[in-house]
Amino acid sequence: MGSAPSAAAPSVTPQPDAARESGTARGAPALTAAGLVLLRDLTLAFRRRGELLQPLAFFAIVTTLFPLAVSPELSRLREIAPGVLWVAALLAALLALEFLFRDDAHDGTLEQYSLSGQSLAWLLLAKTAAHWLLTGLPLALIAPFAAESLGVSTGLAGVVASVAVGTVCLSLIGSISAALTLGIRRSGVLLSLLTLPLSLPVLIFGARATELAIRGLPYTAPLELLAALAVLGVTLAPLAAAAAVRISLE
Amino acid sequence: MRQFLDMGGYAAYVWPAYAVTLAIVALNIIWARRLLAQARTAARRRLGGETGPGDGA
Amino acid sequence: MSWTWFHRLGSPPYVYGLARRLTPWFAWGAGLLLLCGLYGGLVLAPPDYRQGNDFRIIYVHAPSAWMSLMVYTTMAVAAAVGLIWRMKVAHAVAASCATIGASFTFAALVTGSLWGVRMWGTWWEWDPRLTSELILLFLYLGYMGLRAAIEDTQRADRASGLLAVVGVVNVPIIHYSVVWWNSLHQAPSVMRLGKPTMPPAMLLPLLIMLAGFTLLFAALLLVRLRGEILNRERTAAWIREALEA
User: Less Cβ around it within 10 Å: N or C end of chain C?
Assistant: First the structure.
């Protein structure tokens, strides 16, 4: 399992030379390299499907805990459903963060990225995008089933949309804290301590959008706030994560 | 004086609030001085191990 | 416009000496102002017509809350300066801030809770300001946790500095989202701090306390800064002089 990343790493590192030879504009190679990183991460992840399923299983188990702990009455569960879904999604996203940079930091791929001459921020954005496609998007897609089990049967499109956009924010925030804790052994608790306070606005807006959607009310306002956070995150988080990776690699 | 300490029946909450804040102030003063004292001791120990000035590690 | 003062602030021996000379001024100033403020707040200020003597908690709660934010901002600015100009002294300033800020955030939470007992009838209410303070405490704890987890001082400086900068960008977002969240779930808070109608006899002690706490922060920061500089400095010559002085 440990050898898999290093086997695929060379597929990306020759990229700077290829880009220089082709002599295209400065912006284009960065995007090409980012696209390659994205493809590489997705390919690698599909070789290890078991790890991918862990956050999803975790999400399912946490949502199952509530009926057992609170009450099997659907009317009561329906009331707390937005909060349950969001806390479970937040914890599952947090759990998945550990996989974000860990293997690439271990086998030196991240170091090669930072020395590749390509913009590290773009490469990390690609890695974060792959991470979201593999954890955030599946979470959003299974959220309606979890909602159904909590007695919610309306506004499921809103549930998917808010979890999908919210997990974009969570992956981006997480990319910074995951990069900051790279060199630290047993960083699990610290990673949560760094990520959770920064994630609270996402939780607030996301849970609100979900709640409004479930009640059949217009939920675009909180969803737009969530989208605004995601846009802010896409522009700033990769820069911070790149700086953090450089610091951790020093 | 009794009246002042009693705070018109509010003493139970006013005085603990002041006590906690002043305790934090006092602790901060102690912590800051201890940090400096420890740093000075450590620096002195580092210097003691060296033969001459100017050849820092 | 001369930038020599800025360059001199990058020199550890200069800052160490400056900090040692300035500390007594700030410390005595803080002590004087705090005594005046306490006397004004506890004795001279009249009881509030609605809250009686309970409002006197404001003279310790508001300055603690002010400290919690001011220290975090100072920490983030110092960290940014340290990251951008690779200034060791700026990182030492940022490192000195965390404990001070976290402890006063804790004080703001406890005094706010004590104030709330009468106001709300409970020890804890999910008031937006108290909630924001609690999250700020978590931010401080995260900063301290990250710093403690990295052994190498330079790496710890840079990593935790980056976290402080990320945190300070998030503080307004967190605050407004909490206010927004709170406005959805309950009636506007009864507690209104710093209302403009406050009579001078009440307001003046508060301003004096705020100034006193600010000077206290400066004094604490300078003492800690000297310790942090000594821990970071490896050049023996000036340290020998500094220790003898």
Answer: N
Annotated domain spans of chain A: 3-249
**Looking at this protein, which amino acid is placed at residue B13?**
Y
Q: What is the pLDDT of residues B8-19, one digit of tens each?
A: 666 678 888 999
Which residue type is seen at C214?
T
Residue B26 is predicted with a pLDDT of 96
Those chains having 3 or more beta-carbon pairs within 8 angstroms of chain A are C
In chain B, residues with a C-beta closer than 8 Å to the C-beta of C42 are: 4, 18
Amino acid at A149: S
pLDDT digits (tens, 9 = 90+) for C12-27: 888 999 999 999 999 9
Q: Write the DSSP string, C76-94.
A: HHHHHHHHHH--HHHHHHH
Residue B21 touches partner C, C-beta closer than 8 Å = yes
pLDDT in tens, C153-189: 999 999 999 999 999 998 889 888 888 887 776 544 4
Asked if the ipTM is above 0.90, the reply is no
Tokens found for residue C135? 């999250």
Beta carbons within 10 angstroms of residue C35's beta carbon: 12
Residue spans of the domains in chain C: they are: 21-43+52-188+201-233
Q: What is the dihedral of CA A99, A103, A108, A111, to 10 degrees?
A: -10
pTM above 0.90, yes or no: no
Is the separation of the CB atoms in A159 and A147 below 8 Å? yes
Per the listing, tokens 């990295």 go with C150
Angle of the A156-180 helix axis to the A120-131 helix axis, nearest 10: 140
Comparing A52 with C21, the larger pLDDT belongs to C21
CA distance C182 to chain B (A): 25
Q: Which two tokens stand for residue C143?
A: 């900063």
- C-beta of residue C172 within 8 angstroms of C-beta of residue A201: no
